[in-house]
Amino acid sequence: MAFTINNLTDNSNTVIKDKVGSFTVLEYIKDLSCTSVGEATAQYYMSKSNMHRKQLMIEINNSEIMMRAGAMQYTVGNMEMTTGVKGAGGAVRGFLSGAATGTGSIKPLYNGTGTILLEPTYKYIWLIDVDNDEIVMDDGLFLACETTLKIGVVARSNFSSAVLGGEGLFNMSASGKGVIALEAPVPAEEAVVIELQNDVLKVDGNFAMMWSNTLNFTVEKSGKTKMGSMASGEGLVNVYRGTGTVWLAPPSN
């Protein structure tokens, strides 16, 4: 069985923005499907602001990937989709973990050989090669990954860090070795990457999009006393302590 996809990667309006393993990020230079002056005007200014439609293409060869529910646009080739859920208990666990992390209850698995195109997005697609490491993601960033990675749920260390820190009670984690795709609010080249060696990072707001699971995340007062925190105007801050890496969105976002 063989197939050819024409006018996709060989289209002059399409560029390959990034490629890691079997994951490829396509970016459309212009939106050529405008049907009104209003749409054309909006697309013009969006293009000037670096807002381009992007699409994730995944090519699998006798392998398997996991995807965010509802993200698939079309598939070509000999592959099958399963839920990866075994029995009612698995469905309940999937629902609870999905609701906790904001990623959807059931994440479909696609295995076989072929090409998968995900729904286009104006957000930014990050491709991360996890190499025998474990990362924790902000809620809702997960898009797709190789099933060689172990996807889990990490509970916040205490209730106050979840509620007061704005990070939610749980976050999704990815560990092992494989490629993961995230749908982020900022391009990867704008992310501020901070590497800690037995040190402390304090962030005013939930700007952290991803961090090493080796770090201890808590929420603390910005000052030594409650009155001092109030006087500084900062109040509570998210604190990442230990050895590891934190990826921050630019504060303007």
UniProtKB/TrEMBL annotation:
<dbReference type="InterPro" id="IPR036983">
    <property type="entry name" value="AIM24_sf"/>
</dbReference>
<dbReference type="Pfam" id="PF01987">
    <property type="entry name" value="AIM24"/>
</dbReference>
<dbReference type="InterPro" id="IPR002838">
    <property type="entry name" value="AIM24"/>
</dbReference>
<dbReference type="InterPro" id="IPR016031">
    <property type="entry name" value="Trp_RNA-bd_attenuator-like_dom"/>
</dbReference>
<protein>
    <recommendedName>
        <fullName>Transcriptional regulator</fullName>
    </recommendedName>
</protein>
